[in-house]
Amino acid sequence: MIATDNKIVERCFLMNLDRRGDRLRDWMKQLPQPWPFPQPERFAAVDGRHIATPPQWRAGNGAWGCYRSHCLILEKCLLEGIDSYVVFEDDAGFGEDFQERLVEYVSELPADWGLAYLGGQHLYAGKHPPHKVTERVYRPYNVNRTHAFMVRGRDNMKALYRHLHWNDWHTKHHIDHHLGRLAQRRYQALVQGKNVDKESIAVYTPDRWLVGQLPTKSNICGRKWSQTRFFNDAKNADHSDAPFYAVLGPHRAGTSCVAMVMHHLGVHMGNQLGGYETTGGGEAVGLAQLCEKAMRFPAVDPTMSDTQLTQQLKSWIVTRKAEANRDKTVAGAKYPHLCRFVEHLHAGLGDSLRIISVERDIEASIRSLQSRSEKHRGQWFAGTDEQCETLQQSLLEHRDAFIKAHPDVPVFRIEFAELVTYPEEVIKNLIEFLGIEPTDEEISSAIDHVNPDLRKHG
């Protein structure tokens, strides 16, 4: 097994300052057993306090020493013909079942891996969540921190060396920030479909970090923590444990009313809400722009690829989930196109997807959309009577087909006529489905928003 023949990598290095013998002793004492790597070799780290930094360096002497130490280890491997290594900084602390989880992680790493993090912190995960490759392996967008990672392959090592010695460092960036930009290139090319012409290598992370940072005083920033820190994991960097409530219904079906009710109840529906209704459409502007870019009204099929559409919807939603989590609430969204995109939502969100299906007689919704179009001839959101009918039927069919095909996805159905007739009762049940505890004022505001006159087309 890997755990006994130590063939994951050829060499294992521990970066440690000469003046920090205490760290060396403490680090060696806490090594997991059995140890799955070759015997750790202490590498005398560059002490930034004793050397001069280049004039363009603005990140501090400690960060310069860290950067130079990693570069020297890489140079050593290139010069001595070492084709793979793992490096730990002396504040690296190991998680439970380290050896077992490491073997599982390594066994699932794709054959092209060049840089494999064992510990770190996912940056910009709200907008660019790590992309799942296997059950235990993810492709990150950007990883911060360099306390534990593996490097493999001479071509990859040369590419890494070139990247670390380019002079396009951002002001005040540390080595981990610069490495993060390297990871971004492969993610942008393979996940986001962008044309990236700069050199890149395959970078991966585990689903959950294997290595954290010990509660010691940092040699770089001087801060000290009370316990070993494990940062946001790839598995939940996209807040997969937090529900997302998609309000689904064709145009003019009452979804705007429901979305605004949710907004009044404290659900995070987006940072800037717009829409056609004068009382508030409950549509997040950013989501509306994304949806229209993918499928311009009154089209019935997206022009964007399934992969790209799924990723862009997920990125937008993950950011809203993070904001909702910050505000101690849940996230939701409404836009008619989501009926057509519900399979994409499910592909991106998995078990966290929740559906609020707004039910209204389709003929009434068609007539209402046709009436709106007649009032706004020449506007982008107006279609012919035939286009309106085709679009409405398509949205309804896609929503209902998805719900039927996925009985495991939680669905709360709202009959629009019941909402405007018995708003207190319907909203009470909606609150239970949302799993939130709005204030009495928020509940009153939600009830007051419902207008019985909205039944005029029913």
Name the descriptors.
Spore Coat Polysaccharide Biosynthesis Protein SpsA, Chain A; Rossmann fold; 2 domains; 18 strands; 40% helix; elongated; disordered N terminus
- Give the C-alpha Rg: 27 Å
Quaternary organisation of the protein chains: single chain
Number of helices: 15
CATH superfamily of the largest domain: P-loop containing nucleotide triphosphate hydrolases
CATH architecture of the largest domain, please?
3-Layer(aba) Sandwich
Shape: elongated
Write the layout of secondary structure elements.
Blueprint: H1 2-5, E1 11-16, H2 21-29, E2 41-44, H3 61-80, E3 84-89, E4 92-94, H4 98-108, E5 113-117, E6 121-122, E7 131-132, E8 137-139, E9 143-144, E10 148-152, H5 154-165, H6 175-190, E11 202-206, E12 211-213, E13 244-248, H7 255-264, E14 273-274, E15 283-284, H8 285-294, H9 306-326, E16 331-334, H10 342-349, E17 353-359, H11 362-375, H12 385-405, E18 411-415, H13 416-421, H14 423-434, H15 440-449
Parallel strand pairs: 1-2, 1-3, 5-11, 13-16, 13-17, 17-18
Antiparallel strand pairs: 3-10, 4-12, 5-10, 6-9, 7-8, 8-11, 14-15
Helix pairs in contact: 3-5, 7-15, 8-9, 9-10, 11-12
